[in-house]
């Protein structure tokens, strides 16, 4: 494998009631991926627990932990032992009463960076505004031995501004840890279009920014949500390289060539041709007609 080719692993799992069991099963899948040559491994959103935001329940705050903390240290030790980089999503308690939905990037056994989810949804059974303070670290990417990794989280994936700003920090790979699924009563009527919109949005980020995209999603039924899985990796042309199924756990192993980032950005020079002098309106909520 060349220096510019990276073996990426995307892990799609269902989650049990037991936090320790979820972590153990994630560790097993990480170890298995590393044994198959994975160099950068990506976990789904809030991988250590069942999705906690389906109701407004103060008891769920007991699931949060500090960063650095027990789980992040365990993942750092694991990544160091396996000689991999790792992206993981955690329920962070930053301070009393201040909680975040946070992703961490680990390389060489050390915490290389973190991202706090910026866009916080408030939809039926996704009551995240009750739990999470909006992120204040901005959009950023993190240098690893296996490329520059930009991380956003779930609801962030619907916003082209987030993808663009992350790419402008140098990200070659955009990773979107995700927990999204169908409300069963809506699935028959809207299920196909909902999933299609989700994947299409992220593939468009890959094209518009000339970056690889990796989207690890959870799978399985948890209370009111049937998580639809379908984790995928696409290249900077927006072509899906591998995709998991809707109803089973999976580990996707994909070899990506980082040289493709420069090649695509050169042939589709969207970053070159941006009219940065004309975009002031993006900082406004709405552009009223004069």
Walk me through this protein's architecture.
The protein has 290 residues and is of the alpha/beta class. It has a single domain, classed as Carbon-nitrogen hydrolase (Nitrilase/N-carbamoyl-D-aminoacid amidohydrolase, 4-Layer Sandwich). Helices cover 25% and strands 28% of the residues. The protein is built from 5 helices and 15 strands. The strands form 3 sheets. Strands 5-4-3-2-1-15 form a 6-stranded mixed beta sheet. A hairpin with a 2-residue loop joins strand 3 and strand 4. The longest helix has 26 residues, at 184-209. The protein is globular.
Radius of gyration: 18 Å
The secondary structure category is alpha/beta
Distance between the termini: 58 Å
**Largest sheet properties:** 6 strands, mixed
Content of β-strand: 25-35%
Oligomer: single chain
Helix content: 25-40%
Q: How many H/I helices?
A: 5
User: For this structure, what is the CATH homologous superfamily?
Assistant: Carbon-nitrogen hydrolase
Annotated CATH architecture: 4-Layer Sandwich
Order of helices and strands: EHEHEEEEEHEEHEEEEEEH
What is the overall pLDDT average?
97
Major beta sheet, strand line-up = 5-4-3-2-1-15
Q: Into how many domains do the coordinates divide?
A: 1
């Amino acid at each position: 494998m060349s220096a510019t080719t990276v073996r990426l692993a995307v892990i799609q799992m269902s989650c049990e009631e037991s936090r320790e069991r979820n972590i153990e099963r994630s560790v097993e899948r990480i170890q298995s991926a590393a044994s198959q040559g994975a160099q950068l491994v990506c976990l789904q959103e809030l991988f250590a627990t069942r999705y906690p935001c389906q109701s407004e329940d103060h008891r769920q705050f007991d699931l949060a932990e500090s960063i650095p903390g027990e789980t992040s240290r365990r993942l750092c030790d694991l990544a160091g032992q396996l000689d991999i980089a790792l992206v993981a999503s955690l329920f962070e308690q930053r301070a009393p009463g201040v909680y975040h939905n946070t992703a961490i990037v680990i390389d060489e056994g050390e915490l290389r960076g973190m991202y706090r989810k910026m866009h916080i949804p408030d939809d039926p059974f996704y009551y995240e505004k009750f739990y999470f303070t909006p992120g204040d670290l901005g959009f950023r990417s993190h240098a690893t031995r296996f490329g520059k990794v930009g991380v956003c989280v779930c609801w962030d994936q619907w916003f082209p501004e987030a993808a663009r700003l992350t790419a402008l920090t140098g990200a070659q790979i955009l990773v979107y840890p995700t927990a999204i699924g169908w409300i069963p009563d809506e699935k028959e009527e809207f299920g196909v279009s909902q999933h299609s919109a989700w994947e299409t949005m992220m593939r468009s980020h890959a094209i518009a920014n000339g970056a690889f995209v990796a989207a690890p999603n959870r799978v399985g039924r948890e209370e009111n949500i049937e998580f639809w899985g379908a984790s995928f990796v696409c290249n900077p042309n927006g072509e899906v390289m591998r995709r998991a199924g809707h109803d089973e756990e999976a580990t996707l192993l994909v070899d990506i060539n980082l040289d493709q980032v420069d090649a695509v950005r050169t042939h589709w020079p969207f970053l070159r041709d941006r009219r940065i002098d004309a975009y002031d309106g993006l900082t406004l909520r709405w552009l009223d007609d004069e």
